[in-house]
Design a protein that fits this description.
573 residues; alpha+beta; 6-stranded antiparallel β-sheet; 6-stranded mixed β-sheet; 29% helix; 22% strand; binds adenosine-5'-diphosphate; binds magnesium ion
């Protein structure tokens, strides 16, 4: 610590390059400060720092982190405390560029495994960023000293020691997270694919905010009596709510009555939410996938023949490739790729689907002869899909009653509250005159796995590795841009950051080797992450790894599937 102080005084007023001398580790009284990477100039990405406190001093008892869900929740909580402490300091800019800035990668409404904090029996460590102060390119020694010797130690003292935290709040945070993990694991035992607790607040504040709508404005969720089930969570105890059983479930109702809001909440139920989010007890199977149409995406040798056949000019749909998919072919491919990666629940909203993929009405069936219509609409395959692969479907369908015939449950949203109307719906369809011709094939057909070819995935631009993620919807990978905007279950830009490095990791470790299927490659990466921690995917795993949050296998695969240079071979059945 004293040495660091001397160093800073020595380089005061010198050119920015002299900051490189600070690289190293420094023992403070209660913690060690690591300056792992020093930025090249005040406008560059801020410097990477770590702070480590030994457990003898941090004093987090093992009960707070001795299971994986607990550890992830505690790490997340500490990260937020650190971030809060930064905000409370209300730092003002002290020079040019990013001078004086402090930042830690921190979640919002979700609790995700991330690299920003590590807790184990030995230590607590956070990875963060600081902009080392300068005026122009001249080092501001005094400001640097305040930042490193006063502000940062203050933030550390407020967040990395158990005694500094609000204990009840911290324990509650861990318990709420643990409950969600437990309930998600329990779903199959109760024969459910999703659960929405009574009292949940599903609507969000706005189209651009993931925070809950205020309690005055939101109608809390209440299960219809016929679907109400009581589950028991380890900490919260008994929780009542709506259970959605396996099979085909429709959500119907008038426009603006809350159909999409319900589906969206279930879609996010694959993740754990923070206390007070309103969706803490909205739980879905962890491999649930939201499916949508995605015009213009590229598709590589996906077998979409369960849905599409007899394309014009005899284009093969068992190995369907295109650089520019249509609404219906993209939706078909999105389903087949999700099945390939092991989904057991598909979430579909009429708002984001291709109409001709979902349905074809009786008159249309008459006017366009079968051999001129390549699409077997989803309605004619949905039962086969469940029968053959046990994949459930939860679907918003307010515009067409034809689905009543194939539905196992029909839930009607009325002024934001659900009612079970299966019997009425089935009755009505019986009396319907103009019935559609069912075009149901004998079975759903095969789900063909694909093997990605390593030579088609190139992270280099010239001879320089070029991998960059931007926000939650774009990755630059070598010469390519991957568009992730249709992947609605990516919730954090650090997940995108992780996805981009994971593709490189899978390549570098020869998991993508031309013989393993996409699913097998990803399983290998995921297994490495569970043994070595998420930081294994970083090129700087032993120091400050950068900002990563754990994505799901489904989204990693989806990103690879959207790489336009991708080439695959289908696995022989
Ligand atoms: P639909 O899909 O049925 O047309 P949406 O789910 O898009 O309707 O909801 C319409 C509007 O109602 C949205 O602005 C949404 O935020 C709001 N909303 C949804 N559920 C609730 C609720 N439980 N309480 C209050 N407002 C809600
Ligand atoms: Mg809607």
């Amino acid at each position: 610590m004293k040495y660091l102080k001397k160093l800073i005084q020595k380089i005061d007023q010198r050119g920015y390059k002299a900051y490189q001398q600070l690289r190293g580790s420094y023992d403070f009284e209660d913690f060690t400060l690591y300056l792992d990477h020093i930025q090249g100039d005040p406008f560059a990405a801020p410097s990477k720092l770590r702070a480590r406190v030994m457990q003898e001093k941090a004093k987090f008892s093992p009960g707070l982190f001795n299971t994986k869900p607990r550890r992830i929740a505690l790490q997340d909580y500490i990260t937020r405390a650190f971030s809060q402490a930064i905000n409370n300091l209300s730092l003002s800019k002290t020079g040019s560029g990013k001078s004086g800035l402090l930042h830690i990668d921190c979640g919002r409404q979700h609790i995700l495994e991330r690299t920003s904090c590590t807790v184990n029996q030995k230590l607590v460590e956070v990875c963060f960023y600081a902009g080392l102060p300068a005026r122009g390119r001249r080092i501001m020694g005094r400001e640097c000293e305040t930042l490193l010797m006063e502000k940062i130690p203050k933030i550390i003292s407020l967040s990395l020691f158990y005694s500094a935290l609000n204990k009840d709040d911290c324990i509650n945070y861990i318990q709420v997270c643990e409950d969600q993990v437990y309930l998600r694991k329990q779903l199959p035992n109760h024969n459910l694919v999703a659960f929405i607790a009574n009292g949940s607040i599903l609507p969000r504040r706005s189209g651009v905010s993931d925070k809950p709508l205020s309690l005055e404005d939101a109608v809390p969720f209440k299960s219809p009596p016929q679907l109400e089930i009581e589950l028991t969570a380890p900490h919260k105890g008994k929780v009542k709510g709506m259970g959605i059983p396996p099979g085909i479930t429709l959500i119907i109702g008038g426009g603006f009555h809350g159909k999409t809001t319900l589906l969206e909440a279930v879609k996010q139920g694959v993740y754990n939410h923070v206390p007070q989010d309103g969706r803490e007890y909205v739980i879905a199977l962890k491999n649930a996938v939201k499916i949508r149409a995605e015009e213009g995406r590229s598709i590589q040798k996906v077998d979409i023949s369960p849905f599409i056949n007899n394309l014009p000019r005899g284009k093969n749909t068992q190995k369907f490739s295109t650089p520019n998919a249509s609404g219906s072919t993209s939706q078909a491919a999105n389903i087949m790729e999700a099945l390939e990666l092991g989904t057991d629940l598909l979430l579909i909203d009429e708002d984001t689907s291709a109409t001709n993929f979902l349905i074809r009405d009786p008159i249309m069936q008459k006017i366009v002869p079968n051999n001129k219509e390549p699409i077997t609409p989803f309605i004619d395959q949905v039962k086969n899909l469940f029968k053959q692969y046990k994949t459930s479907i939860l679907m918003v369908m307010g515009g067409c009653s034809d689905y009543f015939e194939v539905a196992d449950q029909v839930i009607m949203m009325d002024t934001y509250l659900p009612a079970l109307v299966t019997n009425q719906a089935k009755q009505m369809i019986k009396n319907k005159k103009d019935k559609r011709n069912n075009e149901i094939p004998g079975c759903f057909g095969a789900i063909t796995e694909r093997i990605p070819l390593p030579e088609s995935i190139n992270p280099y631009r010239g001879n320089k590795k070029k991998i960059k993620s931007r926000g939650i919807s774009q990755i630059t990978f070598g010469l390519e841009d991957i568009d992730l905007s249709a992947l609605e279950q990516i919730v954090d830009s650090s997940q995108v950051n992780a996805i981009s490095e994971i593709i490189y990791y899978a390549l570098k470790n020869k998991y993508i080797d031309g013989s393993l299927t996409l699913s097998q490659c990803l399983d290998k990466v995921i297994s490495d992450i569970s043994t070595g921690g998420l930081k294994v995917i970083s090129p700087f795993a032993s120091k400050h790894p950068g900002s990563f949050a754990l994505p799901r296998k489904i989204e990693i695969g989806a990103a690879i599937n959207r790489l336009r240079s991708l080439k695959v071979v289908q696995k022989k059945p």
